[in-house]
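Forgive a beginner's question, but would it be possible to get any protein sequence you like and the tokens describing how it folds?
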Amino acid sequence: MIHKKITNNQVLNAYKKLAKKIVKEHFNMTLPFDRSFNYLWWMYSKGTKEGDLGDFMLFSEMNLLRETDTIHQEGFDNLIKMLSSEDEDNLFIALKSIESLRNERIKKYSEFPDDVTKASPIMLKLAEEYGSKIMTSHMGYNKKRQSDD
């Protein structure tokens, strides 16, 4: 688990700040379409796990970045290597890279809103396919999108 090995407060704070944004958006994405995953995100946004960190948060965001073509497989694989590194500088760079790519995605497609009717078409489609496109493929870090084959 990535957050268990962090000793540098700057890195830990960067992770917490990014995770908070990811949790809010992914909670909104799953609310109308996937109650099971929505409950997971609720636990981390408002429930007993509020404020806790989980690697799945980063991997879910990375899968969202990959599905919106904000990052391609090679960049995805490089981020996995950096996140897996024992070097906290690599972890910090990976976190900042994910944050930057997330901001790029938001500029292009907007953040998934509280009101599903205001979601961009691609974000709406990904929300509908959340369980098969966003949350499941992080388990096998090297799983490629079907369109990458």
